[in-house]
Amino acid sequence: MLKAISGLLRPSAGSIRFDGAEISGASPRDIVRAGLLHVAEGRALFRSQSVAANLDLGLYGAGIGRADERRRYERVYALFPVLRERSSSAAGALSGGQQQMLAIGQALMRDPQLLMLDEPSLGLAPIIVDQVLDVVVQLRGEGATILLVEQMVERALEVADYGYVLQGGRVVAEGASASLAAGDAIRRAYLGAAAG
Predict the structure, then answer these.
(1) What is the pLDDT of residue 77?
(2) To the nearest 5 percent, what fractions of the chain are helix, strand and coil?
(3) Do 70 and 151 share a domain, yes or no?
(4) Taking the model in full, what pTM does it have?
(5) DSSP letter at 8?
(6) Digit-coded pLDDT (tens) for 67-98
(7) Do 48 and 101 reside in the same domain of the chain?
(8) Which CATH number belongs to the domain containing residue 86 in this structure?
(9) What is the domain extent for residue 77?
(10) In this structure, are residues 21 and 51 in contact, taking their beta carbons and an 8 Å threshold?
(11) Could you tell me if 121 and 191 lie in one domain?
(12) How many structural domains are present in the chain?
């Protein structure tokens, strides 16, 4: 789903609209220019480049002035202080959690209208998952729009306002996160009819 929204896959049917505009079939470059940033599963970073260089790449083509660049760096460093501490370290030398923070920080350098996070907890220790999801909550509190795809369903529902349960590529339930957490739609989707 996120790859289709990001323009990496062409949908075979249907429509993708963002802020009233049709974006199905738009190039990934145009999707980014429209303000949709996708932090892919697996933390696709330039591992031999420094943390600062990876953040610089997040600004590529942004066309903003130095003052805005500094403001964006400070925002990322405020959210993820370890990135400031490790700014000259190669991205590949960071822990998995720090790499996830860098991948999110790189996307935030574009000041996205929509931040899409694909499995940000994948392969991370529970304490690091908490840190990453705390930042998601903070961003949400600042008014950011975030589309979170997450295997840790309970944790995702704790930080989300609204949720969708997908099964076999189809939406089988949706609603306020608290309602989804209290209901049995998620259990049925994961465990089948026997869970009912």
Answers:
(1) 97
(2) 45, 15, 35
(3) yes
(4) 0.88
(5) S
(6) 999 999 999 999 999 999 999 999 999 998 99
(7) yes
(8) 3.40.50.300
(9) 35-160
(10) no
(11) no
(12) 2
